[in-house]
Amino acid sequence: MFKRRVALLVAIAFLMTIIVPGFLSAPTKAVAAAKNPIVFKIYWGDSNAEPVDVWKTPIGKKVEQITGVRLQFEFIVGSDEETKAGIMLASGDLPDLINAHNVVNKFIEAGALVPLDNYIAKYGKNIKKWYDAKALKKLKYPKDGHIYYLTPFREESDPLYSFAGFWLPIYVLKENKWPVVRDIDTYFKIIKDAVKKHPTYNGKPTIGFTALTDSWRIYVLMQQPLRLEGYPNDGGWLIDEKTGVVKDSYTMPYAKTYYKILNQMWNEGLLDKEMFSQNYDQYLAKISSGRVVGFYDERWQIQSAIDSLEKQGLYDRIPIAMPVLKKGVKRDRYNVVTMGTGAGISITKKCKDPVAAFKFLDRMAGEDILKLINWGIQGQDYYVKNGKMYKDAKQIQNYMNPDYRKKQGIGGNIWFAFPRPPFDWTYSDKSGKISWDYSDQALEQRYKPYEKEVLKVYKIKSFKDLFSPTWNSPYGYGWDIKLPDDLQAIQNQADDLQRRYIAKAIMAKPGEYDKIWNEYLNKMKNIPIKKVIDFRQKEIQRRLKEWN
């Protein structure tokens, strides 16, 4: 009897060695990974990204536990992505992973990045769920046909707000009986009247119109004439969506007309006298003060200023985007939806374990992690009822608090650079949208009381309803075309000339504007910008043919 029991115990022990490891493999591996994570160094070359180490947040720690990977971040200092890229490539000092952002082509041309094609085919379980063959085809580098990064699907705006526009504060809209401002002349007249009626605010002069001109962010001033002509943000290029014909905006006739309006406002004292010397923080501080009447910008760049106004309770000073156009233009393209081909996260040739690094990137596209980084921690940031994800009142309050999201690790531009589907897609278990922001509950709850009052006055459900329907670009984003170094140098030359002369023209004394503009056009003739146009046109036409 005793021998039978011993034999039985031995048999059970043997079975346990076979069954239990398989049965407990996931939690066992997770515990082991948490104790001994693989550490990858990553350089974050996006000068726009807030340098927040998400791996130190509660959600980041859970991601580390699930993936078995810890990231050590190096963020770019300053905003010169190109210079930093040159230094890294010259020294050969590369990390394991890199978000090369606007200069990824430099790393590709230098042979510094690992092609991902074979890894996607072999290990891309989650990636192939979101990126079909057509999407992967778009991500191939035109010169050699390889994929070097996986661009996250990008939405230029969420369902609640327009991506960009010409902004006016609520009190001004109210005083003008709630107009939908579609005409640039009307827009500036409203600004003039507002400054005349309210010359000061909190003891400081009211600013009629300001602009963001700090470093590369000056692009929002450069693109204003294109927006008014009804073009999307294609990086300063006018693109025919059917033929692929490309024109540059450097010398477009309407640019002269528009900047002359700003010149007149400058001489009338209606433009911000510091707008060509202020930095980004100073620009945001002015909007946050409530004394700016008008400006053009993209919402993501001014969100912190809106948050600040809300915290101060200055609801009547919060700006609302308007679909302003040049007279005679019927349709705006402030909102675009498409799959961009700009950079995501790449694996460098110096990576100590490229297979493990790719498996990590694929794991980041897993639905459990997507829920974690977009919805938060179950029980803390959302709850599940009848298989559906929801947020209660407190969880919604926390989610809408940017300080809480930052501390908890929910959302943020670091997570958004990893491979992911569009936020409005649905999880395979039908529990909800990829991001809570796109859920039905969010559409009902995200708007604050003051916003609901404005929507009610305008008789609309979303602030996007003030604009033309979102446009689906057949060629992607014109701004994410990567130029060879020689052509990039030509475009940089043209950009620098444009920036100098537009500032000079806007600040010109009365009667000097035309002279300065003609001088600018003559100097632009010396730059062989047609080479850049021809390259871009060839790429746009390739995209139109292959993507559609």
TrEMBL record:
CDD domains (UniProt xref): PBP2_AlgQ_like_3 (cd13582)
Any one Pfam family match given in the protein's UniProt record, by short name: SBP_bac_1
Superkingdom of the source species: Bacteria
Name by which UniProt lists this protein: Extracellular solute-binding protein family 1
Species for this entry: Caldicellulosiruptor acetigenus (strain ATCC 700853 / DSM 12137 / I77R1B)
Lineage of source species: Bacteria, Bacillati, Bacillota, Bacillota incertae sedis, Caldicellulosiruptorales
